Structure to design on (486 residues):
């Protein structure tokens, strides 16, 4: 469960997130849809306590992120595909995170197998393709078997097989009762993945809707529905 | 499994940082290369020692000139490489208490540098002594002042490593941090020294050569080596404190 109230953040005078409020519930996939630069990644960073909001709050199961006792066991996040040292092996990267969360070594091998990197685990991650890098980042997010997953543009740059793999993974996580929040600027991908859509533009929440409702609004086209909402907004 | 009322702490942070440090092949090679270069310089300096009235101990520790740059750069990279890759956001998401992360980095990296530094200076001393010509006096390792000079130089190498970590945390950019560190060590003493020679007693790089590594007193360095080591340690602590302060307050 994620609760965001009045969340506001600006960088050097530019408002990136403007008075955002929403709840995200377990058991379904909530899509976060908006153009590039609309404030999706900023919202993700604020949720993770990486950036400090100017106003408002972002709570995970009722507590601010910084108060989590074992953060990786509560929240798994993918912010960037290549958020690892290129000289470290995939296994060493995950072992360091497992140590941070007092998770057994066995969990590292489990998530490596789950994302299909068991054979590449001993290779330096700097040589990974984008798809493998994305899989490693997802392995890190799954490490603590968290109840909440935040995925920022997880399908960017993936080949069709990778896109489908992530879609299936996201759906199965929600089916197992996880709270799943996925951002994307790809409308068609969101249509296939998300149960519920939060549409953001210019840092403001434009709609809290479903794929069906937004499609109806666009006269049968989800894309038209989206452009109807975001037209004229940066 | 851990019970629910526990929370991550220094132990978990230190384990994470230890795994990060030891899992980079480049760090191992740079450290080993730096140690070898430091010892080699000591051997050359020993062989080139001709003065009968000089300070052979100080001479054979001259390799610290290179060693301090190696540990310093490794310290910088321990922090800034996390920023260049984006790993820092993963680290801080796993451990939101950023001061704890820096404390763990300081402890783990500092300890590794201290062990490496002491091994390096002892090897420099032994190698340098073996290379000394028979015409110059051979200092005895049993002499307390000699032992103090050797061990303090090793500690100095660990301190410059931590200075690099502090500067890296402040600037977050590798090239900038290396520039500031090297400038602070080697260029700053030239500038302040031109204004007042008395400032040398506060400049780490001059302290290392003229006080910490010296068995015989050097003009201008009248304070005890212990006090001088404390001055260096205080500067390093100030850099780390500033880095920690910024780490907590800035967006990651």
């Amino acid at each position: 469960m994620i609760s965001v109230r009045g969340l506001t953040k600006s960088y050097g005078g530019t408002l990136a997130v403007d008075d955002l409020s929403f709840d995200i519930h377990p058991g379904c996939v909530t899509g976060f849809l908006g153009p590039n630069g609309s404030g999706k990644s900023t919202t993700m960073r604020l949720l993770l306590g990486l950036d400090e909001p100017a106003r408002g709050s972002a709570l995970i199961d009722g507590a601010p992120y910084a108060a989590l006792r074992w953060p990786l066991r509560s929240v798994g996040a993918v912010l960037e595909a290549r958020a690892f040292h290129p000289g470290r092996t995939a296994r060493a990267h995950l072992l360091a995170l497992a140590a941070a969360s007092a998770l057994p070594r066995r969990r590292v091998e489990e998530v490596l197998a789950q994302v299909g990197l068991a054979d590449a685990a001993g290779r330096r991650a700097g040589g990974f393709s984008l798809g493998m890098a994305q899989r490693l980042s997802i392995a890190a997010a799954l490490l603590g078997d968290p109840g909440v997953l935040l995925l920022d543009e997880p399908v960017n740059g993936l080949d069709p097989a990778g896109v489908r793999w992530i879609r299936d993974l996201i759906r199965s996580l929600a089916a197992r009762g996880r709270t799943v929040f996925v951002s994307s600027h790809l409308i068609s991908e969101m249509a296939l993945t998300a149960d519920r859509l939060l549409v953001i533009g210019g840092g403001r929440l434009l709609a809290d809707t479903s794929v069906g409702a937004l499609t109806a609004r666009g006269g049968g086209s989800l894309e038209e529905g989206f452009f109807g909402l975001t037209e004229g907004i940066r | 499994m851990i019970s629910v009322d526990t929370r991550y702490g220094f132990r978990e942070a230190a384990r994470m940082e230890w795994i990060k440090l030891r899992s980079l092949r480049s760090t191992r090679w740079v450290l080993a290369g730096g140690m070898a270069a430091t010892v080699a310089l000591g051997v050359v300096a020993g062989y080139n020692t001709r003065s009968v009235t000089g300070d052979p101990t100080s001479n054979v520790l001259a390799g610290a000139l290179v060693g301090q740059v190696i540990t310093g750069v490794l310290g910088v990279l321990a922090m800034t490489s996390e920023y260049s890759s984006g790993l820092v956001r993963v680290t801080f998401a796993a451990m939101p208490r950023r001061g704890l992360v820096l404390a763990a980095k300081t402890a783990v990296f500092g300890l590794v540098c201290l062990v490496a530094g002491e091994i390096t200076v002892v090897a420099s001393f032994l190698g340098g002594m073996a290379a000394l010509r028979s015409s110059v006096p051979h200092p005895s390792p049993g002499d307390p002042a000699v032992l103090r000079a050797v061990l303090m130089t090793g500690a100095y190498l660990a301190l410059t490593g931590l200075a690099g970590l502090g500067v890296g945390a402040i600037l977050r950019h590798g090239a900038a941090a290396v520039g500031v560190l090297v400038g602070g060590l080697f260029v700053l003493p030239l500038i302040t020294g031109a204004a007042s020679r008395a400032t040398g007693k506060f400049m780490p790089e001059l302290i290392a050569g003229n006080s910490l590594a010296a068995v015989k007193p050097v003009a201008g360095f009248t304070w005890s080596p212990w006090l001088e080591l404390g001055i260096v340690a205080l500067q390093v602590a100030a850099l780390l404190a500033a880095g920690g302060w910024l780490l907590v307050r800035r967006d990651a």
Observations:
- The domain at 2-81+147-230 of chain A is CATH 3.40.50.300 (Rossmann fold).
